[in-house]
Design goal:
The protein has 468 residues and is an alpha/beta fold. It has 15 helices and 15 strands. The chain folds into 3 domains: 257 residues, HUPs (Rossmann fold); 130 residues, Isoleucyl-tRNA Synthetase, Domain 1, CATH 1.10.730; 48 residues. Helices cover 48% and strands 15% of the residues. The mean pLDDT is 95. The structure holds adenosine monophosphate and zinc ion (ZN).
Length: 468
């Protein structure tokens, strides 16, 4: 399997640090609003990367954070007259609903920045001890960028060019030793959430959050670190500087970045106001169509969003679904009995499309070509089965088609809805697990239910649930 590594600007053979296991961290959203479909792109593409790795037999430990302390969250809280925590919790819950509706699997862990402050204080202290960071008189702690000799290795930027860009923007009152130094910890302003620290009452900078959460949940060295390409600089460059200076080890082996989702060739973003939320799109389309649309392009290419392309995705998805539906329908009245030699030939020939799909995905997750292979399989199925086909062949082909779609997180067949009694049973099991302090199992059950679009709410009167 080959993956394009931003670090080397080349496709490289994927070799995990530990055989059979993948440690993967994807930078998650800052939660102060509903997510837009630009934010959904990394969620969908890296969920697909995860699913493909799992299909290949890897055990994937997939960590994705929520940035729940940030200027934008605080601003929104002030506007609404509520706490920052109320804002972040509200939008984390909404984001999880959107993710479930896009069939994005819950991460193995979804850490919150505000729950990891202890680890951040520890890492900052280590960086100060090692001479990589320093507190200024006002309590701000800065990273000494020039001290990390490999700074710029991810974004392929040169320190002197960066320096030139900074020359004019020395901000009054800042006490940096060097304009390139960046913030690890900053003093609180009036009315802002804050934590105690050896340097001042304050809060962490954004970059340190990911270095710390990645280390805590995955260890000092990980296989894949991913996010949108806007995160390459400065966010990921700074994460590398912090983690490698602190731990003395290579932080991540492969750096994967998705291209932008654009509108009229401009990046979709909250600040430009040119966005659609996932929730808005869900009013017009099944979100499987959105997923199918996103995967129709290579994850590193820019992708323009338009109504026409969504309509094309919708009819493409229908073509696949009709193929699966047809197999189901034929199977109902099909003859019992086993595959005959002619059918055996059809079955073996259909393996060729799986090979084609895998070859596409092995080539840096080329989902666009993967989808073409699925279309070809559908066409092959439609021309090779009829009312005389055996139940076994129909069933096997259906499974093959659904499996390939499933790797992309595309549901080829309408799922049977999970029944209320099954939900209640799982909730009871979760309660029992919690009583026994088996929180891992309790969280797992919550995740399983979320995958089915069931959202749990722990209230004083007990657990309530609803369908997303
Ligand atoms: P943010 O909440 O802005 O930190 O973004 C969360 C994730 O969404 C990051 O990985 C961003 O790179 C990604 N992202 C934001 N806007 C877009 C876009 N228009 N296209 C693709 N990815 C995006
Ligand atoms: Zn990050």
């Amino acid at each position: 399997m080959k993956v394009y590594n931003t670090l080397s600007r080349q496709k490289e053979e994927f070799v995990p640090l530990e055989e059979g296991k993948v440690k993967m961290y994807v930078c998650g959203p800052t939660v102060y609003n509903f997510i837009h479909i630009g934010n959904a792109r990394p969620m969908i593409v890296f969920d697909t990367v995860r699913r493909y790795m799992e299909y290949k037999g890897y055990e994937v430990n997939f960590v994705s954070n929520f940035t729940d302390v940030d200027d934008k969250i605080i601003k929104k809280a002030m506007e609404e007259g509520v706490t920052a925590q109320e804002i972040s919790q509200r939008y984390i819950a909404e984001c999880k609903k959107d993710m479930a509706a896009m069939n994005v699997k819950p991460a193995t862990s979804h850490p919150l920045a505000t729950e990891e402050i202890g680890g951040m204080l520890e890492m900052i202290s280590t960086l100060i001890e090692k001479g990589y960071a320093y507190p200024a008189a006002d309590g701000t702690v800065y990273f000494r960028t020039r001290k990390f000799e490999e700074y710029g290795k991810l974004s392929h930027k040169n320190l002197d060019d960066l320096q030139a860009g900074h020359r004019e923007i020395k901000v009054a009152g800042e006490e940096k030793e060097d304009p390139l130094d960046f913030v690890l910890w900053k003093p609180k302003k009036e009315g802002e959430p804050y934590w105690e620290s050896p340097w001042c009452q304050g809060r962490p900078g954004w970059h340190i959050e990911c270095s710390v959460m990645s280390k805590k949940y995955l260890g000092e060295e990980i296989d894949i670190h991913a996010g949108g390409e806007d995160l390459i600089f400065p966010h990921h460059e700074n994460e590398i500087a912090q983690s490698e200076s602190c731990n003395g080890k290579i932080f991540a082996k492969y750096w994967l970045h998705n291209g932008f989702l654009n509108i009229d060739n401009k990046k979709m973003s909250k600040s430009l106001g040119n966005f659609f939320t996932v929730r808005e799109i869900s009013e017009k389309y099944d979100l499987q169509v959105l997923r199918f649309f996103m995967l129709g392009a290579h994850y590193r290419s820019p992708l323009n969003f338009s109504g026409e392309l969504m309509e094309a995705a919708k009819s493409g998805l229908e073509r696949i679904r009709n193929g699966a539906e047809n197999l189901k329908h034929l199977s109902k009245n099909a003859r019992e009995g086993q595959i005959d030699p002619k059918e055996q030939g059809i079955w073996e020939e259909s393996q060729g499309f799986v090979a084609k799909f895998e070859a596409a995905m092995d080539d840096d997750f080329n989902t666009a070509d993967g989808i073409s292979a699925i279309f070809e399989l559908v066409k092959f199925i439609n021309t090779n089965v009829d009312g005389d086909s055996s139940k076994e062949l129909l069933g096997n082909l259906r499974e093959r088609l659904c499996q390939l779609c499933g790797i992309l997180g595309i549901i080829a067949e309408g799922k049977e809805e999970i029944l209320d009694v099954e939900i209640e049973k799982l909730i009871a099991e979760r309660q029992a697990a919690r009583k026994e302090k088996n929180f891992a199992r309790a969280d797992e059950i919550r995740g399983l239910l979320l995958e089915q679009g069931i959202i749990l709410e722990d209230t004083r009167e007990g657990v309530k649930w609803k369908r997303a």
